[in-house]
Amino acid sequence: MEEKSPLSLVGGVGIAVVSSFINGSTFVLQKKGILRSRKAGKTYLSDCVWWTGTLTMIVGQVGNFLAHNAAPAVLVTPLGALGVLFGAVLSSWLLQEQLELLGKLGCVLCCCGSVVLIVHSPKSDSVASRAEFQQRLLDPVFLSYITLVLLLLVLLIGWLSPAYGKSNIMVYVGICSLLGSFTVPSCKGLGLAAKEAFGGESSPDDNGALFLFLCLLGILLVSILTQFTFINRALENFSSNVFEAVYYVTFTSSVIVATAILFKEWEALGARDCLGILCGFTTISVGVALLRISQEAVLTWTPPKTKEE
Q1: CA–CA distances in Å: residue 214 to residues 81, 148, 196
Q2: How far is CA 156 from the centre of its chain?
């Protein structure tokens, strides 16, 4: 494992905190732009607020990339929960989307469960070379997992999205989250391939490194564009509060599963970590259920009025 210096850790965590707040505002700004354009009878592609949210998303993703290269994922990823909470506050101001009591409890449980899950999840092992990374990509277990993800994406995009996308938020969330299995490994591999392909030192493996770099870049661009498309479809039909919270949880879970299979750290998990992962998933499931229930049920602290005799 490659050790990070204290300065690198502090810088990575600082970038992650800023990126979390930036990412927390992206869905709210895009939702605001969609509502403004819908009211004006125009497409949201012509709305400046929507484009502000889109540019903010790009900045936030660049920040995430820098943070993950400066600090371990176990420190960076839980900080994404700050974006969920910030998005809830911002949407109540810009969109008047008030989370009811059940929704607020669900949001807190989702964030807490995600932190517990990440703390006990397998820790990413450093891959020192492009050849080692490429060898792990060709592992039969990882290839089987990616095949399963592709089949689920075909099912979601080809059948469930047209039929149930506008009525069930989990369809769009599932598409965007499953694509995380491609985006994170692609980001990790791009850096390794770029060092060998453009490092300045010629070697017989330069062509292989360049080919891997171009393949990963293509996969990353297709995944991001697909995510971008379905994120905006979700924002057109659902509350940004609910979407952001559920998306954060499912995307994080998908990334953890993909990286655990790719780097095989699950083999070193002890009973304590297994119990922690189970508790984290249980907490997340309860939180997501409360978020879904909050769309149809209202719970307040106000006592019911009694009839006067």
Answers
A1: 32, 24, 13
A2: 18
Helix (H, G, I), strand (E, B) or coil at 3: coil
DSSP 8-state assignment for residue 42: S
Q: Report helix, strand or coil for 89.
A: helix
Q: Which residues of 236-258 are buried (b: 16+ CB within 10 A; e: fewer)?
A: eebbbbbbbbbbbbbbbbbbbbb
The residue ranges of every structural domain in the chain are 1-97, 101-122+269-308, 125-239+251-260
pTM value is 0.78
Alpha helix stretches (DSSP H) within the chain: 6-40, 48-70, 73-76, 80-94, 101-120, 130-137, 140-155, 161-164, 169-178, 180-197, 206-237, 240-263, 271-294
Contact 281, 117 (CB under 8 A): yes
Query: pLDDT at position 152, please?
Result: 95
Q: Which residues of the chain have pLDDT under 50?
A: 309
Phi and psi, residue 166, nearest 5° = -80, -10
User: Residue 44: what pLDDT?
Assistant: 84
